[in-house]
Write a structure and sequence with these properties.
single chain, mainly beta, 7-stranded mixed sheet, 4-stranded antiparallel sheet, about 0% helix, about 55% strand
Length: about 120
Amino acid sequence: QVQLVESGGGLVQAGGSLRLSCAASGGIFTIYKMAWYRQAPGKQRESVAEITRGTGSTNYADSVKGRFTISRDNAKNTVYLQMNSLKSEDTAVYYCAARRTGTTAWAYWGQGTQVTVSS
């Protein structure tokens, strides 16, 4: 069973930066992709960025391209989300997710970390 624990959220002014971390444990070698999702109050959860654990290939939502960078450190079983030029609309709970090899569902989720951007 894969466990995911996020950290690094907080309160930041618009234009500032934050780095989120997601530490994975248990069944690491079954993970194919990891991702960051977010959910703002009253809105549906949306994908922010994803990364393939082996190749490091990435995909981003249009709303964060050029501002956010997803990366991974396989030696530490950790995925990061560097968020720069933050906007008030980036305020949300950010969740880390993992997908197993050979599946299409994001089966594993962290508990979430709050990011609040003040304008």
